[in-house]
Amino acid sequence: MQTHLLGYPRIGSKRELKKACEQYWSGKIVLEELLTAGRTICNQNWNLQKEAGIDLIPCNDFSYYDQVLDMSLIVGAIPTRYHEVALKKNNSELDLYFAMARGYQKDGLDITAMEMTKWFDTNYHYIVPEFYRNQQFKLTSDKIFNEFSGAKQAGINAKPVIIGLVSYLLLGKEKEEGFDKLDLAHNLLPVYIEILSKLQSQGAEWIQFDEPFLALDITEKAKEVYTFVYAELKRLFPKLKFIVTTYFEGLKNNLSLAVSLPVNVLHIDLVRNPEQLEDVLHSIPESLSLSLGVVDGRNIWKNDYEKSLSLIKKAFEKLGPERVFIAPSCSLLHSPCDLDFETTLNPEIKNWLSFAKQKVKEVVTLKELAAGTSDPTILHDFEDNKNTVAGRKTSPLIHNEEVKLRANSVTEKDSQRKKPFNIRKEKQQKALQLPLFPTTTIGSFPQTAEVRTWRAKFKKGELTAEQYDALLKEETQRTIRWQESIGIDVLVHGEYERNDMVEYFGEQLQGFTFTKNGWVQSYGSRCVKPPVIFGDVSRPEPMTVYWSQYAQSQTSQWVKGMLTGPVTILQWSFVRDDQPRSETCKQIALAIRDEVQDLEKAGIRIIQIDEPAIREGLPLRKTDWQNYLKWAVEAFKISASGVEDATQIHTHMCYSEFNDIIKNIADMDADVITIECSRSQMELLHAFADFKYPNEIGPGVYDIHSPRVPSKEEMIELLKKAQDVIPSNQLWVNPDCGLKTRHWEETEKALIAMVAAAKEASVEYAS
Predict the structure, then answer these.
(1) Which of these is catalytic: 125, 399, 705, 743?
(2) pTM across the whole model
């Protein structure tokens, strides 16, 4: 019986990687300092696992930005537009890598970033590989070999982690028509062979291939490619031991394929789909060992040892302990680093939690318990674990009968606007008097170091509430004046009082708690600190009315009220696992509904309820979609439907493929939807056009996740593409997403160009 991890958080326990990357991008440190920061994190992670007693320790799970982008660089899947970046005299391999992720706008070059989208149903974003007909690949980076060598120097013969060839291809996008990306498998396979050959020569014994698509709906062709690829790799490398990992779902109809692959170990996710164990054990051949993902890699609740041991025991009975591996369900990338840093949490709640470092210990403890240890320390931990699990179920912190009763009393009427959209639109046009191609932003404006310093000083008691309030009002007023000066039609207040679009609301809702250092990576250097939903959710008092009302009092133009929607609050939190997610979501929806109604009473006539995570929450198997979409759409409608027809409800979604769920998006019945579109060059709009989406749409005309500033002409071209598929009287003009992470200099230039582009499009349309 062995233990292993699929991956470990790479940001550092105090976000050291984030800080180092951002310092490098701003020119404050040199390349070697960035590389040193990365090596330090790797060594800390390896030593932590070694000291805990993990048997197979992963390497190449570290990344300076994204593991899929790493793979694109390693196999030479570098779009031609970046070749000039690589040729620039002082640019390193990492400069090319970051240009692919973030775009490049210097040295006379102006190059857009590669597309970014969600990693399955998580809040992590990956950089989408770009594929072309007959594309050739070649080994172009030594990253994987350098990390393996670094682990050996640390005394660890590590297990290299590689995105499996088939999953890598399926993660990408065909950038020209008339071919299937899976046809590139024959061209890509020689590079994988070269990688394995080099690793074998370095002394590698185990190789982990991440193949999450084995837990998804895949085509017969994909199954054939899986069979071909692994047969070739095993034929050429019979001495290497392969672990194929699946996660986020069960194998289900891919079970026979997965157990037939010529590999040594198959990993399954028994947190997301414990029911699959029975079928896997029934089908597994004698040549195959099984890795049991019993520790939750995506949530922060302490493992229920008794529950996990029952699954391990079942595997023992069929396979014997020598063919069983114990692991987290997936990479611990999605977990915060270390619970030990949390010194202010309610002790009772803290005792329910487990972060990445603690999950490593859970894996090792489960191995010892499964082996029948007599170690008194471990047996004491087992008893503590039983008491913690039992105590959490009955804790009075969790349950609020009034909240449960209200949620159970919701009727269909609570999720319906008074009149259909065409009638609402007339009333809204009359009330709001907005022009053709109205301009707006998604909500937040740059949170400068100065603003963050104010917040920190306020929390430390170095600023009084009155002083902090005055500073925020001054910044809000300045932002209102600036938006007026450049001609934006619908203003926002900038959200300077907010730390995070979910955390800010969670801090004001009952049933939530917060960590100080519970950071997880969202994309690149962007880290988020998800709230913890531990109990029934309710809103004690208004959350945003004060600032929305203040901003509206400073201008004669309309100011949007800005809220985060119930599904996104759910998705971007660590959610209680003792009741259905749909029930928790309904409780949040009712809290947001109360806030929407209070905003309307305060004179706010445009209210945005952001739902960027609604697509992200879609189950990975299509057979499960409709149940999720039913309660997710209902939750949004509950939150939005308590207002008058003349009040305009907006929503925002980003980095999503909408084709398969466009009807459900329409069912949400938001008056205006704003979406990410610039990186895809308006491709995402085709789903709305083909469906003849009836409501109004704001396709993003510039990518805020990149520091480059697009020109007015570039935005005009995107607007023309939008007008080709969407009627002009349905179009809004806006950025892709909020501007909180950007700098003011680039924000000002980009928004001035955006307003100019909208005005020019309006003039052209009128003529």
Answers:
(1) 705
(2) 0.90
